[in-house]
Amino acid sequence: MREQDRELASGSTLPEELERKLLIFFDPNCVVEKGFHLNLSAYKIPRYIEEYLILKLCGDVPLTKCFSKIIEYLRELRPEPEEKDVVLNKIMSEGEHLILDDFKVVTDIKFGVHRLEIPILNLKKAMIDPKILKEHEDLLRNGVWGIGRLLFDSERSYGDAMSEPVLMVEFHPYEISSFDIQYFSGARAHFTDEEWMDILIQSLGLNPRLYDFEQKILYLMRLVPLIECNVNMMEFGPRASGKSYLYKNISHKVRVISGGKASPSELFYNKLTKTIGLIGLMDAVVFDEINYLSLSGTEEMIGKLKDYMESGNYERGAKQVSSDCSLIFIGNVDRAPSSPHDIDSFLPGFARDTALMDRIHGILPGWKLPKIRSSHEHIARGKGLALDLISYWLHEMRKFDASTIARNFMKFGNVTIRDERALIRLVSGAIKLMYPDLKVRERETVERIVETAIEMRKLVRDWLRLKLPHEYPNELEVEFRWRSY
Questions:
Q1: pLDDT digits 0-9 by tens, 378-400
Q2: Sheet holding 362-365, edge to edge
């Protein structure tokens, strides 16, 4: 039997030696079985919460028994939609109930109260004990997954006449208890660059064996807007290549808007409720299926998007907000473009504004990535890093600056300031992804990162030359240059 066949027969999509190293250099609480996919669609929980449950509930339980244990747990704490009124009746008749949900709190300053949103019970005006908000301020930002103890409170102790008589008095968030970024960076140092790529792709739930070196770099570029602040990126590629799945399942700091309509109130600031929109709260906002996306108040929206994409600031009414949120626009296409004219056909109407497109740092050529055709072949099996750990690491790495390192790997010729800024941000994010300690190691990896970033920016630049040849008469002139660190 060939070595590769032997490794596949072992049940893991990682080589045995690499999986062994993963278990040596990372704490067992950071590593989870990736091939164990539960059928939890009825419970509407993202993959990172599913993995959290596997780690917490199945540590001493064989995987064959894990599914029934988690189902039993969820049936009690996360009712299916048709069970909503049964649970509300329990709260009303028995006085209390535990719920697992993505809780969010809105401040209603007009009436001086907080409104607790409990999506699984379709409640938007429940109440919350103020002491919980002091301990878990993120409930006021973008919501937090966790278990809440709910009481029936007919007195509406922390509400008003419009409040629903349901009060959350206790809350236990689902989050990693601690994260040592130095430990994480130190563990990374024990792996080669391609081993690290394989671990990341495995951890994201896919089989790294099915990607060549170029495709691995390209796939991991999807994470750049999550690890680098204020990256504006587009991706076009075939359906079923994992574009939106990645963003929907990796982090509570990423919000996906699928088709439909997006409004200034949702994205920027709601004047009525005086609440900051998604762009002011998230690490990344993803606009999925952009060909079907319509913008409410198009002129205002386009103007604010352009201002924000340029400066990282926006204002609406009297509210001024600074944010480091990245913007990602995703579209489905069935073919690779043969010219900039094809890129034009990929874009929805609102994106054909040349000033907006110049603020897109790069177009990721998703048509170069394979479709996910067979779950047995394409889905990861064996050990990988837990998604909540990956999510927290990506968020923490946004605080680090690799722009000087990125700049030193490029020699700029005839480029605009926006070209330069775009390339530095794309390369900086990829360097942080590959080298958490910011100690660059292998020339081949960095050269491919720079080449990919140039290719991504060139797709934008060539489209701009098509539309405005007098403003963009020249090719994008950038070269890779190696500097050891």
A1: 889 999 999 989 999 999 999 99
A2: 254-258, 284-288, 326-332, 232-237, 362-365
Residue closest to 434 by CA, chosen among 127, 137, 175, 193: 193
Of 127, 47, 44, 126, the residue nearest 81 (C-alpha): 44
425 and 411 within one domain = yes
| Residues 410, 325 within the same domain | yes
Residues 294, 376 within the same domain = yes
Q: Which residue(s) pair with 150 in the sheet?
A: 97, 168
The answer, yes or no, to whether residue 61 has pLDDT greater than 90, is: no
The stretches of 236-332 forming alpha helices (DSSP H) are 243-250, 264-267, 298-311
Report CA dihedral (188, 192, 197, 201) to the nearest 10 degrees.
Answer: -70
Tokens of 307: 């201002």
Q: Are 382 and 14 in contact (CB under 8 A)?
A: yes
- 3-class SS of residue 443: helix
In a domain? residue 186: no
One domain for residues 310 and 375: yes
Same domain, 121 and 69: no
Q: Alpha helices, DSSP H only, in 58-154? A: 63-77, 84-94, 130-135
Structural domain including 218 reads: 192-480
Q: pLDDT tens across 110-140, in order? A: 899 999 999 999 999 999 999 999 999 889 8
The reply to whether 420 and 271 lie within a common domain is yes
Say how far apart CA 107 and CA 115 lie, in whole Å.
6
Sign of the CA dihedral with 133 first, then 136, 142, and 145 last: negative
**Does residue 85 sit in the same domain as residue 70?**
no
- Assigned domain for 92 exists: yes
> Mean pLDDT score of the chain, rounded to an integer?
90
Q: pLDDT by residue (tens digit) across 399-428?
A: 999 999 999 999 999 899 999 999 999 999
Q: pTM of the full predicted structure?
A: 0.87
Residue 8 lies in a domain: no
Number of domains comprising the chain: 3
- What separation in angstroms does the CA of 343 have from each of 225, 264, 463? 21, 27, 7
Does any domain span residue 405? yes
Q: Are residues 166 and 311 located together in one domain of the fold?
A: no
Give residue-wise pLDDT tens across range 135-161: 998 898 778 899 999 999 999 999 999
> Which residue has 């008095």 as its token pair?
169
| Cβ atoms of residues 227 and 431 within 8 Å | no
